[in-house]
Amino acid sequence: MIRVWFVVLMVLYNLMFSSTVAGLDNSTVPPFVNIGVLYSFNTSVGRMVKIAVEAAVADINSDPTILGNTKLNLSLQEDSKYRGFLSIAEALQLMATQTVAIIGPQTSTTAHVISHIANELQVPLLSFTATDPTLSSLQFPFFLRTSFNDIFQMTAIADIVSHYGWREVITVYGDDDHGRNGISALGDKLAERRCKISFKAAMTPDATSEEITDVLVQVALAESRIIVLHTSTAWGPKVLSVAKSLGMLQNGYVWIATTFLTSYIDIDSPLSSDEMDNIQGVLTLRMYIPDSKLKRSFISRWTNLTSGKTANGPLGLSTYGIFAYDTIYVLARALDTFLKQGNQITFSSDPKLNQPRGDSLHLDAVKIFNEGNLLRKSIYEVNMTGVTGPFRYTPDGNLANPAYEIINVIGTGTRRVGYWSNYSGLSVIPPETLYSKPPNRSIDNQKLLTVFWPGETTQRPRGWVFPNNGKLLKIGVPRRTSYREFVSQVQSTDTFKGFCIDVFLSAVNLLPYAVPYKFVPYGDGQNNPSNTELVRLITAGVSIVPIIFT
């Protein structure tokens, strides 16, 4: 009898357990999930992001195959300063609404600050515009980048510099986390190719035209003519405008701009003729998104999405807008997996944020997302095909297969002169066509189409000039009375001519760097000078270094 009752109890237990599991989705899946967006919506990038994010949320909420009956509840928080203390307060406002994830912030500087808060409250930050390489460090586990790490962009620029045989570059950048860390990464990648940054021209992110002029004048006095500009869409065009007025977009100069410039061109298109004149011949990069039906559909849909929302001017679509749209889908698919695994969304008070007596910050309203780490892992496990193409993470937390278009500004528009991918380097073939082949980074395989450089020339710039502020190398030239066809001083001048002079000048012109020099005559012109005496003068500390013998 006891055995019979035992069997009955086991059956009832199994039935109850089965019904509990079967009803798990209904009892634990919430009707809505709060997500936040922290961006500066009064900027062109912020306005574009807002439209893209709202479109993605609407599409997901109308698609029952994603999240089922759960809806995304979107909260938009203006990042009014997107750099300082107010950004912290605005992030806390979002997190006080039991937000499970935040899209943003817009800048790397803000991301560095609020990533500490995200770590404490275990709320994932998903950003596609904060591209500073150092944000991928183990220090910020809850910062997830949903676009390409700037380490790849800097690798692409280093490959371009090496491809054209240049050895030194000058960097112009905003002196903030985004600028400094990006340029540091560029320096490392150049060093791997036996190139270097010869001069770092840092400016405050809010530099005035006068301050920009002062810095660019120093750049113009240097010997390198290869200038890498790494900054924001708000500040970069101003730098190029000042450079244009200083004559630094003429023949001989090379300007390589990071992705800020293509974003500026794509969002504010069409640019005025004056704006286009300021960027003629510039090389720039754009995050590469392979062609697909989804991409073409979204681009054609953009006009309808922006209808009636362009009071502040035209609002084109840049790659950041497409990554913004896909970021919402990545989060939604991660949440879908997270909830289907039976996880709940719960919050608890942080004992470290217990409100001190007499304090009025109300930090007790900010809660820890208890399952934040599980959601973070679900995000990293997303493997989907979106508008941006195949989307998945590699073990180091970066997106797989990063690639860029290399864009040349010409006339009233732009022209793609090639691609760069982390798989195959520089090529004129779309990167996805090369993924099925063994990687080939040989010099012969690194190719780009013809570039129209500043000054409307297709001839590769030498990349350097004799600096106006450099130390001259003094060349001792004997004033001989014999064999004057080899070397002689032009009468009544400081110049020299002859076979030896021609050989020297030809050798100098073949060097990949500048060697400022000055010919210094030696001897009275009446007798052949003693070469032994000239060597003795060198050892005695006289600044005449090499000698031209005849």
From TrEMBL:
UniProt subcellular location: Membrane
Keyword Repressor set for record: no
A cellular component annotation (GO) from this entry: membrane
Key words of the record: Membrane, Receptor, Signal, Transmembrane, Transmembrane helix
Receptor ligand binding region domain span: 49-411
Signal peptide: 1-23
InterPro entries: ANF_lig-bd_rcpt, GABAb_receptor_plant_PBP1, Ionotropic_Glu_rcpt, Peripla_BP_I
Protein name: Glutamate receptor 3.2
Organism listed in the record: Medicago truncatula (Barrel medic)
